[in-house]
Amino acid sequence: MLKQMLIDSNKYGVKCPYSMTPKGICIHNTANDASALAERNNVNRWDNDAEVSFHIAIDDIEAIQLIPFNRNAWHSGDGGNGPGNRNYIAIEICYSKSGGDRFIKAEKRAAKEVAVLLKEYGWTINNVKKHQDFSNKYCPHRTLDMGWQRFLNMIQAELNDSNVIDTPEAPSNSNEIVLGSKVKVVGNNYATGETVPSWVKSNTYAVIQVSGDKALLGTIMSWVYLRDLKVVSSEVASVPSKPLFNKKYLNLKPHMTKWAIYKENGPYTVPYKIGDLKPSMFGGISYEILGNPVTDVYIIQTRDYGRVAIWAPRDNDSTITNNPIY
Known about the structure:
The protein is of the alpha+beta class and about 325 residues long. The chain has helices at about 10-15, 35-45, 85, 100-120, 130-135, 140-145, 150-160, 200, and strands at about 1-5, 25-30, 55-60, 65, 90-95, 130, 180-185, 205-210, 215, 220-225, 230-235, 250, 260, 275, 285-290, 290-295, 295-300, 305-310, 320. Helix 4 crosses helix 7 (about 150-160). It is globular, with a radius of gyration of 21 Å. The chain starts with a strand and ends in a 5-residue tail after the last strand.
């Protein structure tokens, strides 16, 4: 049951200044280990004037509403008039930094609360979005790591008044996928829920690990559900020493003075960056793409930091080409 503990009305001018007719729900992970009450109290703190807010915080014990649903919150990073910030109910799932049993319970509670809101507003599962949909931030990070579609299935199960989460039936060839199988990606999403780029689908990969209903593909180093893979050769191969597709290069343009990099396995957000590349010092820099674990995140090999991840959305600051530019 949702507990209402609204912030002080004198905070509305900063935390939720605009009226809102909600169009859906945006899911976040807190990226810390504070409780729902602590999250609410932090937003309501007398000296907290940051334009950062959300409607509901949920932990393993309770769900707390701190902002009315007819007012906006600053949560999605898409600007003052962005659809996320102005039209979506923001839900923060707590304990995502360390994960474990508390986070699992918080996520289950969140699925229930989301289902209640969907029923109340007459919405469907299509009205549930993730923070990343609005600003490309890798959030909700732990929910994405565990599988976005898995979380949507939890919500749908609640909508269906069922405690059983349906798992899509795997295709008949999935039991043929073993270590070394040569496969193509035929599904539209990685196991994390992120979209598979078109260039990934056009190439063949060797399976380097199988775990349950997922396989880890060599070269791109990404997990994909077995149901989303197609065996293209009955020959079992060892992991190739060179890429199975034409090389791609990420080119960082020379006007960029700094570019954050992260550990290969994430999280891919600024608080977790491990350093900065400096393209302007070298007149631009090109790196061979070694992997693409999630949308717009690429694995590269650097001189000073070794193998790292870099977030590079398609914009005027970078390009991807078949040959290095710099």
